Amino acid sequence: LLFPVSNLCGKCKPRDTDLLQPSLNFLYCSLHQTTPCSQQRAVAVLLSNVSLLELLQKVLECTWLRSPPPAYLSSEDALLCSGWLLVASLLLYQHRYNTEVHQTLSLDLTKVLNAVIFKKKKPILLLVSIMQFLRAILRQNFSSSLLVIVGQNTAQGATQPQPSSLQDAALHPLTSQQVFSLVVSLQNLLVHKDLLLSQAVLACLETLVEYLYVKNQDVALHVASQPWHRFLLFTLLSGGQKSFLQPEVLRLMTLFLRYQSSNIISQKEISQILQEATEANLAELPEATSRALHLFLCQV
User: What is the longest distance spanned by two Cα atoms in the chain?
Assistant: First the structure.
């Protein structure tokens, strides 16, 4: 089915939402709900379809052309979500299996970052989808053979980037200003306390700090130890008797422990989490909480 569905997508235009939406979702599910052997073949089929990749390029570019969004998830927004999630998956599996690429995708990094930094009432699912993509390119150090990154730091014709500082040179193709703006936006999104959004934000924040730690440890430790993080924790802990056992709180605590942000998390908070964990019925904890608690205890 991958052949006819992917070929059908390649013949569509981005405005054919009624046909493209289920088709892209089918391709996405085919990548994720199959055996590793079939998954490798599925990736090869999709990446060999030049028309499909050209269509995905056009779909993603529609993100920057959106008119003022409605209060609900429109069919156009839903198609954008499917496009970003499918491309993020293709990036992940192309890297995993080192699959041959027949057509590259080109994206402006500044526009991708600004889509998260300047949210402008975007639907939550669209923000989540873009953050999944951003996480994928961060994990691959912006070096995927499927993707060509363009933007203010990658001007055509320049043999070497011309960074404004040594710090920006280390973070290339990101700039320190983009990094700090993105971190503040991720912090603000966490305050919404939406489970799906929180999981995507935390995954993106974790991957971003890992990327920074490899590029420039000083910047990574600076980001992890921002005093605003402590205010964010107090905001997340504002309700519930067992509020330390929220998955987003546990994952944030784990992140601060990993990068030794002693000004954000103290021995007192660690002791409180351990105390709440001993009093809780671990078998009844939600899966997300159990997984986050396990990672926290391993980090401790």
Answer: 62
How far apart, in Å, are the Cα atoms of 20 and each of 44, 97, 135?
Answer: 20, 26, 24
Handedness of CA 83, 145, 152, 163 (dihedral sign): positive
3-state secondary structure of 9: helix
DSSP state of 16: -
Q: Which residue has the tokens 């526009």?
A: 111
| Token pair of 288 as six digits | 């997300």
C-alpha distances (whole Å) from 146 to each of 83, 176, 188 are 15, 25, 31
Tell me, what DSSP letter sits at residue 67? P
State how far the Cα of 179 lies from the Cα of 70, in Å rounded to an integer. Answer: 29
Q: Which two tokens stand for residue 151?
A: 């933007």
In the structure, what pLDDT confidence band is assigned to residue 300 with cuts at 50, 70 and 90? very high
Across the chain, what does the average pLDDT equal? 90
Its pTM stands at 0.91
